[in-house]
Design goal:
By secondary structure, the protein is mainly β. The protein has one domain (3-218). Helices cover 2% and strands 43% of the residues. The chain is built from one helix and 17 strands. The longest helix has 4 residues, at 168-171. The relative contact order is 0.26.
């Protein structure tokens, strides 16, 4: 698995291109955050340099910041850059986080799509809703809207928290974590802990299945995250 942060200004964000090639047949999974003054669907388009067709897996747009998870099956190999444009010109403190995963179902890999939000108080324990998976082998991708104080960000039990750029305040990089399930989960709740709480926090959790086949596994190579 490789993961890469990217950012930009105004309504256009992108991932940096200085990473290893992506491989045809694997999936590109993209987490997006956008903070703006007007809530609603702010993603105008998502595309990459390998002509991957992306679909929306999960989103939460009812309050600022908005979160999105997209995925697409790679049909070509090579160095890739993922581009996202927003309808909101004032989209600030955004990020794109991209992971490449192998071993998923040949089509329709999304099993669970969960969006959990808190609106009140200042929780430091960020949680998903309880969910149950369909297959034994699933890749779990989660990211949160928690802001900036990430030296104290801790992953949930069994999850790996992916590293982040040091300059968190310029990118507002929410926590990104992943886990591989090897058995069916019943009423599972994903957790992530932030050093400081916020009155409005969202966590998206999506599970991607192997379809009951060989077993979802991350790519063997890992790159450090890179920020703009």
């Amino acid at each position: 698995m490789w993961a890469s942060w990217g950012g930009g200004t105004g309504g256009y964000y992108y991932t940096p291109s200085s990473h290893s090639s992506m491989t045809s047949g694997n999936y590109s999974i993209v987490g997006i955050r956008c903070s703006n003054s007007t809530t609603g669907n702010s993603v105008s388009s998502i595309y990459d340099d390998l002509s991957t067709n992306y679909s929306l897996a999960t989103s939460y747009t009812d309050h600022d910041p908005e979160l999105y998870t997209y995925y697409g099956k790679l049909t070509a190999s090579g160095t890739n850059v993922v581009h996202v444009t927003f309808t909101a010109a004032d989209c600030n403190y955004g990020y794109i986080a991209v992971v490449e995963v192998s071993g998923l179902a040949a089509s329709n890999p999304v099993d669970v799509s969960d969006a959990a939000a808190t609106d009140g108080g200042s929780p430091t324990d960020i949680t998903s809703n309880a969910f149950t998976t369909t297959h034994a082998n699933e890749f779990v991708f989660g990211h949160s809207s928690a802001c900036c104080a990430y030296d104290g960000m801790d992953p949930g039990t069994g999850f790996t928290l992916v590293a982040k750029p040091d300059n968190c305040c310029s990118l507002y990089t929410g926590g990104l974590q992943y886990q591989i399930f090897s058995s069916i989960q019943t009423n599972f709740v994903a957790h992530m802990t932030a050093q400081y709480g916020e009155p409005r926090t969202t966590m998206l959790t999506t599970t991607f299945s192997d379809g009951g086949g060989g077993g979802a596994t991350p790519m063997s190579s890992t790159l450090p995250l890179m920020g703009i």
